[in-house]
Amino acid sequence: MFEEAETGLEADVPENLIKDPDWWKGAVIYQIYPRSFNDTNNDGIGDLNGVTERMDYIASLGVDAIWLSPFFTSPMDDFGYDVSDYEDVDPMFGSLADFDAMLAAAHKRGLKVIIDLVISHTSDQHAWFTESRSSKDNAKADWFVWADAKPDGTVPNNWLSIFGGPAWEWDSRRCQYYMHNFLASQPDLNFHNEDVQDAVLGAAKFWLDRGVDGFRLDTVNFYVHDQELRDNPPLSADEAPSTVDPTNPYGYQDHVYDKTRPENLVFLKKLRGLLDRYPGTTSVGEIGHDGLAVELTKAYTEAGERIHMAYSFDLLTPQHSAAYIRRIVEEMNEGIGSGWASWALSNHDVQRVGSRWGEGHDIRKFAPLETALCASLRGTPCLYQGEELGLPQADVPFDQLQDPYGIRFWPEYKGRDGCRTPMPWANNNSHGGFSDADPWLPMADTHLPLAVDMQEKDETSILNRNRAFYAWRKEFEPLKKGDMHFLDSAGETLVFTRSHGGETILCAFNLGTEPASIEVPDLVLGDLRAPGFTGLVEGSKITLQGLDAAFARVKS
Predict the structure, then answer these.
(1) Are 115 and 30 in contact (CB under 8 A)?
(2) Which pLDDT does position 2 carry in this prediction?
(3) Where along the chain do its domains lie?
(4) What's the CA gap between 234 and 255, in Å, rounded?
(5) pTM for this one?
(6) Which secondary structure element, helix H or strand E, spans residue 321, and what is its range?
(7) What is residue 432's three-state secondary structure?
(8) Element (H, E) at 99
(9) pLDDT at 34
(10) Which of 13, 233, 295, 528 qualifies as a FRET site for 37, CA 20 to 30 Å off?
(11) Cβ contact 90:98 at 8 Å
(12) Cα–chain-centroid distance for residue 236?
């Protein structure tokens, strides 16, 4: 069994984390996709030293933590989300020493470091799987999900892979099928085996001992499968989830047996027990289950019991009306119990919000507005690299696609490469200051005018407006940890209050392009001018221009 021995690290924990172990509540997390952030060895691929080199820039944004997408040893079939060694750095990204230097640089600037923990599956090149597939009676024979074929040789059940086709792959060594929720080269671990649970907890402990401040848990509700391997029931066309592309048959099923099993709660409690031995650490889970976001967030983030916070894909869809956003957020607030949500409007898996929600809008107005909105909701906001610049989705031609998901479903679904193109640091060359070599994905021409060096020198740029807002937000504890209550308002406006410690802040957003006037007769307001926004608060009246916001202190 996994030993809960003393770590001996307590004396090394930064003092500020011990003073506020709940620093993660309302903290701004900046997601870095290392392959595309900054290349220092000129091989066209970003690296850990590239993150270290840009640490002053990251700190200047006013964020509290960084989340690093995977940098572990991997054959890179799914760009690091197929791990072949949990306790080392892929040479593509550097070394463990480079990681330690990056971690130290972040901590020196007061930034926490959260790393991706991908434990629902491994790479088929992981030593665990190599041993498991070698026979039916080896020490790791049941570390993965193996099943016999049906009498006619077909797959064990109707489970589907998110990346297309059956979730089963035939293995000629064992003459059995193994399960994979994603690529065939990403076999699923068998979490019904306690040795597996102990092994992945050991991998987590390796990084906690190294000083990381927590984990982003990839596909956190995919860990456990139904031991009876029962078929998933079908969904009708009008029940198909909005978060699954309609070209993908994965949306035709109700995934009640291949994921989101109740036994997962037991493992997450073990994981929380490990994290609690490292004061000030945190965890944020990715919930990939349509229609159950509120219920799962409540169960998975129950205060003190399991993980600290979780996010779903409900604000990562094309739907973005004020009514839709209010419904999603209000349902979460009302149903989450003692739990805590995290919110993101962009990440490495979805079309950038600048295109998904902002198409047709003035990006200089829209981008700061969506950043401020996300950072004003009850929960912990995540900012994806380039979002602070207002980057739109890049258009990557088919012959330059890297994402197997996009290649499989092209052209109706173009995959995830368009949100993963290199970060534009400079406007002076075709590679945007990312690298001196041809990058692994092309630098988008539409990104060069929005490069960091272009925006740095403009006080009214998207970048500088976002910096100013985050700095202003730090002054108001209600915007970080406060309760949230929506007020009724018309059209494409959102109005809500955040309350904490006897202080209440009113937030008003106009997501439309036409001016809007809002009356809140039951409140006495004092205007709080947030940098970059022109909304006026006079008595109980709020006046907003298109794509504008206003903030006020509620006096009574």
Answers:
(1) no
(2) 55
(3) 10-120+194-224+259-473, 482-554
(4) 9
(5) 0.95
(6) none
(7) coil
(8) helix 96-108
(9) 98
(10) 13
(11) no
(12) 29
Query: Which are the contacts of 200, defined by CB distance < 8 A and separation ≥ 6?
Result: 86, 117, 119, 189
> How many of the other CB atoms lie within 10 Å of CB of 154?
11
pLDDT bin (cut points 50, 70, 90) of residue 429 is confident
- Joined together, the tokens standing for residue 302 give 């129950």
CB of 537 closer than 8 Å to CB of 471 = no
The tens digit of pLDDT for each residue in 490-527 reads 999 999 999 999 999 999 999 999 999 999 988 888 98
- Where is 67: in which H helix or E strand? strand 65-68
In contact, 455 and 414? CB cutoff 8 Å: no
> Which positions are annotated as active-site residues?
218, 286
Rounded to the nearest 10°, the torsion over CA 207, 374, 530, 486 is -130
pLDDT at residue 225 is higher than 90: yes
The fold of 10-120+194-224+259-473 is: TIM Barrel (3.20.20)
DSSP label of 180 = -
**Residue-level pLDDT at 239:** 72
Distance CA 383, CA 176 (A): 43
User: Which residues contact residue 53 at a Cβ distance below 8 angstroms, ignoring those fewer than 6 apart?
Assistant: 38, 40
pLDDT digits (tens, 9 = 90+) for 444-475: 999 999 999 999 999 999 999 999 999 999 99
Instruction: Please provide residue 220's backbone torsions phi and psi, each rounded to the nearest 5 degrees.
Output: -65, -20
